[in-house]
Amino acid sequence: MVLSILHRSTGVALAIGLLMLTVWLVLIATDSSAYERFVALINTVFGHILMVGWTFAFFLHFANGVRHLVWDLGHGFEKHQADRSAWLAITFAVAATAAFWWCVT
Predict the structure, then answer these.
(1) Is pLDDT of 105 > 90?
(2) What's the pLDDT tens digit per position in 29-88?
(3) CA distance 89 to 15
(4) How far apart are CA 3 and CA 61, in angstroms?
């Protein structure tokens, strides 16, 4: 149940992140001074928290989507299997986020 709520929440977060990506791309193409202000905002602690959060949201949404695909095939419906796959999705999201930011920085 918690992962269902997180899946919806990460979908909303990814939609907001897509808007931010669009703003970033528009600023690159149009206004260099506004782009520099935007980059300065992203390079703050708050900006880094947003970026890490969006990365985590992406990986969790992805992993839970794969989990749902497995369910669509008719597997993993028993309580212990569903619990195990939920923890696997969360663990994957945390590890993938950490690995991504370790590689980027």
Answers:
(1) no
(2) 998 999 999 999 999 999 999 999 999 999 999 999 999 999 999 999 999 999 999 999
(3) 20
(4) 10
Query: Measured between alpha carbons, how far is 101 from 91 in angstroms, rounded to an integer?
Result: 16
Question: Which DSSP string corresponds to 47-80?
Answer: HHHHHHHHHHHHHHHHHHHHHHHHHHTT---SHH
Q: Is 105 helix (H, G, I), strand (E, B) or coil?
A: coil
pTM of the predicted protein model: 0.91
Tell me if 7 sits within 8 A of 64, measured CB to CB.
yes
CA distance 19 to 26: 11
C-alpha 16: how far from its chain's center?
11
Torsion of CA 8, 89, 69, 103, to 10 degrees: 100
Distance CA 89, CA 97 (A): 12
Q: Can you tell me the distance from the alpha carbon of 2 to that of 66, in angstroms, rounded to the nearest whole number?
A: 17
